[in-house]
Amino acid sequence: MPLEADVLAAFPAEVRIPARLVSDSVAASDEASPRILVVLDDDPTGTQSVANLPVLTRWEEADFRWAFGHSIDGVRPRAVYVLTNSRSLDPSEAAARNEEVVRNALLAAAAEPAGAKLHLSFVSRSDSTLRGHFPLEPDVIAATVAAVSGEATDGVVIVPAFPDAGRVTIGGVHYMRGTGDAAGELIPVAETEFAKDASFGFTSSDLAQYVEEKSEGRYPAGSVIVLDLNVIRAGAAANGTPEDPQRSALAIADALDAASESTPIVADIVTENDFRALALGLEEAERRGKKLLYRVGPPFVRGRIGQEVHAELSGEEAYAGHTPSEAGGLIVVGSHVGVTTRQLNALTAQHRAARIVEIDVEKLLGADAETYLGQTVDDVVAALRGGDVIVHTSRLLIKADDAAESLRIARTVSAAVVAVVNRTLKRFPPRFVIAKGGITSSDVAAHGLEIRHAIVRGPMLPGIVSLWEPVDGPAQGIPYIVFAGNVGDDESLAQVTRKLSNTF
């Protein structure tokens, strides 16, 4: 595998850009027309890189009106997250849900008082390892915007990078950083377990070729605009010339001049400064009249709106404003990727006081599933009275050769996990809830805890793992931790649990 240092040696050094520079640029644009990014998050883990923004698990017009008008620290939000959970849906369901979200958001924005009409930009947030409904979701968003507002999309900006979690794009190729003995190496993402996903597998790590593959040739690789690090870092210092972020912004905007009819645009990203350089370039392109939507990984929004990288939250901050319950906490693990299993093993080995309740997936798929679920809830409630409870699905992944059947099995398992959480919440509310895995954390939020509106307060670990504060429903006052299945090292789940637990 190539070494990251060797691959980067062919490109300029990063351009140092303070978040304030991006924030000020966005604010200047907002003076003419207030703008909010509406982030359609295909699972809830997209919030892990941002702080102090509203999250919706429902998307009626009234929900958007709440989010658009909900000031935080006296400021209207620059982005609103909508938990679509579309990665767990089949293509037709995902398309319908995307259309409904976009249509209702546009209607809510149009209903703003005269003189305060909002301009919405849409972000299709998906997986940093390239799993999800692509190009379906950007296609549907663009078509819906055109149908409702008459505005055509010039380009779809594709930025899956997530450096905090070890995903970077260099020279148009998307990589995972190696760990352990492979530290310093770059692993092309198509050579990882994620590329073998039963529903969203792929074969190419080159993002232009990935676009051609997933679009079935509708967008040939040669038609994709690639903003490599030579463009992103065009403002780097060289030959006595001082670094200049504006040079990067102009180079990026110039490269986008040719975009039309939803041209795919791929961006290299290795550092937070690269995100900020890209944000300045996108601002310039939009000032020139380009209409863009975005298909991105988690940190893009932070860079795009000029947020600082939020420090990890302490346990005290997680409970701020609320008196924590004396009950145990509930840790729910549904993801089956390798890193999740290792994290689960580390947690169970270290947290000797925790009770472990395993949900047997084979029993969930059997005839006596309801009886089995009832007994599981009884076990969880009894255990919470004495301390933390770790609820996890059996580690044997049951899947089918057919993608639709694999999704059906995943939904059945997720529905059972949700039922356990919801029935437990109604009988004996836990001190905190951690949900591990994308589909798991989405369903636990929307249905298990019945969260409709929340505020994402920040990360529990540097750059990853977000804390939601539910603002309504039966889980109000209970810290909810959204923990993606494919992030963190082997100790991460134990570290987060230790912050929140009173028995660990």
Number of helices: 17
Q: What is the beta-strand fraction?
A: 15-25%
CATH-defined fold name of the largest domain: Rossmann fold
Count of domain modules: 2
Q: What is the fourth-level CATH superfamily of the largest domain?
A: Putative sugar-binding, N-terminal domain
Strand order of the largest sheet: 9-10-5-11-4-1-3-2-16-17-18-15-12-14-13
What shape does the CA trace take? globular
By helix and strand content, what is the structural category?
alpha/beta
Average of the residue pLDDT scores: 93
Number of strand elements: 18
Radius of gyration: 22 Å
> What is the CATH class of the largest domain?
Alpha Beta
Low-confidence stretches: none
Q: Which architecture of the largest domain per CATH?
A: 3-Layer(aba) Sandwich
Main sheet: strands, sense, barrel: 15 strands, mixed
The N- and C-terminal alpha carbons lie at a distance of 39 Å
Percent helix among the residues? 25-40%
Could you describe the 3D structure shown?
There is one protein chain. The chain is of the alpha/beta class. It folds into 2 domains: 302 residues, Rossmann fold (3-Layer(aba) Sandwich); 184 residues, 3-Layer(aba) Sandwich (Molybdenum Cofactor Biosythetic Enzyme, Chain A), CATH 3.40.980.20. It contains 17 helices and 18 strands. The strands form 2 sheets. The chain has a 15-stranded mixed beta sheet, with helices on both faces. A 3-stranded antiparallel beta sheet has the order 6-7-8. Strand 2, helix 3 and strand 3 form a beta-alpha-beta unit. Helix 14 packs across helix 15.
